[in-house]
Amino acid sequence: METNKNKILIVGSSACAYTLAKKLLEQGNIEEIFVAAGSDAMKEFATVVDIREYNVKELLDFAMENAIDLTIVTSEIAITNDIATIFANNNMKIFAPTKNSAFICENKSNGMKFAYKNKILTPRFGIFEKTALAIDYIQKQPQMPIVIKAETHQDKGVMVCSSIAEARNFMDKLFDSGEKRVLVEDYIFGHEFSFYIITDGYHALPLGSVATYKYELEGNGGAMSAGMGAFADDTKVSQDIQDKIMQQIIYPTLNSLANSQTPYVGILGVDLVMDCDKNIFVIEFNPFLKEPDAQCLLSLINENLYDLFSACYIGAFADEYETLDIDNATTASLVICSTKEGETINGLSNLDFDTQVSHFKTKKINDTEYETTKGRSIILTRKARVASKAIEDLYAEAEEIKFSGIKYRKDIGVIQ
Prior knowledge:
By secondary structure, the protein is α+β, with helices and mostly antiparallel strands. It has helices at 15-26, 56-65, 76-80, 83-89, 103-106, 108-117, 131-139, 164-176, 239-259, 293-298, 305-314, 317-320, 387-398, and strands at residues 6-12, 30-37, 47-48, 70-73, 94-95, 125-128, 146-150, 158-161, 182-186, 191-199, 204-217, 221-232, 266-274, 280-286, 330-338, 344-345, 356-359, 363-364, 370-371, 375-384, 406-407.
């Protein structure tokens, strides 16, 4: 019997959207994938639509005119512009949280205040609109270091500060860049990782844990970034720890949102830190998979994503999914950056068939070649039965990539 073919619209332009589009196409029940705003690299396998992520009315018109069967939103901008409510009010199927349910992800202040209100463990924190008030607060704390964060989700918006002068300078920089508020948090000594679930707002299942590498340099040195590498599942997060996260963090969060008549539908990510006593602190909420976490986790999910995401929207998730088919393997991802823009990326055609490549906003030169963007350019991902093999293969493949100004961490999977 012939399987129905579906039309998908992905709203986003990141490497996560790139990976998601390729994964959906591989699963075989897709007629066509549209991506808005997409990227140059996505034109190889998807139809890129020139509509900005914030232009929700145009996105709705496009979805209706093209009989889109499911819209999947990876863009935080579109979620903040309440694309989920607008599509649902027009009977268009969409996999995304509403603006009201995703307010905990909209900025860091909202997430921390929500967790505190619902008795979910967080580091002690303060929110400030002026550097002088924040410094006064820091001077009363018993010890350094202290964590300073931009309220918004900006790259390089976090710094662990070991002195008052360092904290003052970083806060001044954030306010000068247009930040309205900054967060000051106690630094928790422990293991940082991310945890993701999929939910219809009531029932939730884990997608997995990811060991994240946010610092730009080896040994967790240099500035904080949006992510330089990752591997999944995180070997330090046992099944008992996952159960604890579900009981103490995920379900209290979902229950509170549902009780406020704003059930959260979609993928929810939580950045966490676990101290030496196995206490788990919430650092931040995220409304979808982050890079390079997405590349790790999507490689392990064996479920048909169209069916899975649709079940969450139509309310069949709890009935159809008691567990998820997650591959019992390890994936490792490496972000390859460039200090220059417009450099030809050599070696992509030399990569092994099993190496997954995801693009940020690289520029296509011809059928096989791309030019770098300045900063994060591509992500390489490898999968193996054991972590050591995945990481060994990942770095062997990274050596094939050549261009002037190449930069990446050499210790993914080595240091945690």
